[in-house]
Amino acid sequence: MANSGLQLLGFVLALLGWVALIAATILPQWRMSSYAGDSIITAVAVYQGLWMSCAWQSTGQIQCKAYDSILNLSSALQATRALMVVSIVMGIIGIGVASMGMKCTRCGGDNKVQKARIAMTGGLIFVVGAQA
User: Fold this and answer.
1) Angle 50-55-31 from CA coordinates, rounded to 5°
2) Alpha carbons 123 and 42: distance in angstroms, whole number
3) DSSP 28-78
4) pLDDT per residue rounded down to tens, the chain (132 residues)
5) CB under 8 Å, gap of 24 or more: what pairs does 62-67 form?
6) Which secondary structure element, helix H or strand E, spans residue 110, and what is its range?
7) Reported pTM
8) What are the φ/ψ torsions at residue 105 (nearest 5 degrees)?
9) Are the CB atoms for 95 and 87 separated by under 8 Å?
10) Across the beta sheet with 31-35, what order do the strands follow?
11) What phi and psi values does residue 46 have, to the nearest 5 degrees?
12) Contact of 83 with 132, CB cutoff 8 Å
């Protein structure tokens, strides 16, 4: 059985990974391309994300546009969006289950074996959410 410090460390690392997952889902830098043309003054960088497309010009302007329709997106992008949302939801469930099973909480009763099984289930939910 792990002590409370290791459980807390694992929970904090899983929570940080979940926050990073949300950040990666939101940010538009999934696919990047650029065009400099004849002059660096007219350089344009195009960022395409899961939810929007952004154009950054060398003058410092950034213009973002959300995708109009899900039907116009490629099937790979639609599947990626769905899997990222499923991973975020699984992370929320994993946070709830793992926090109930930790030794430092009073949820789930006083039975140590039962709390260990609940904590292990929460960890497995985190792993399944990471694989989605």
Assistant:
1) 40
2) 50
3) STTEEEEE-TT-GGG-EEEEE-SSEEEEEETTS-EEEEE-S-GGGS-HHHH
4) 558 888 889 899 999 999 999 999 999 999 898 887 776 677 889 999 999 999 998 888 999 999 988 888 899 999 999 999 999 999 999 999 999 988 888 876 778 888 889 989 999 999 999 887
5) 64/28
6) none
7) 0.83
8) -110, 165
9) no
10) 31-35, 44-48, 52-57, 62-66
11) -110, 125
12) yes
Instruction: Please report where in the chains the tokens 């995708």 appear, as a residue.
Output: 67
For the record, the structure tokens of 100 come out as 């109930």
> Residues, the chain, total?
132
Nearest to 130 by CA among 8, 1, 20, 38: 20
Domains of the chain are 4-131 (1.20.140.150)
Closest C-alpha among 22, 28, 34, 46 to residue 95: 22
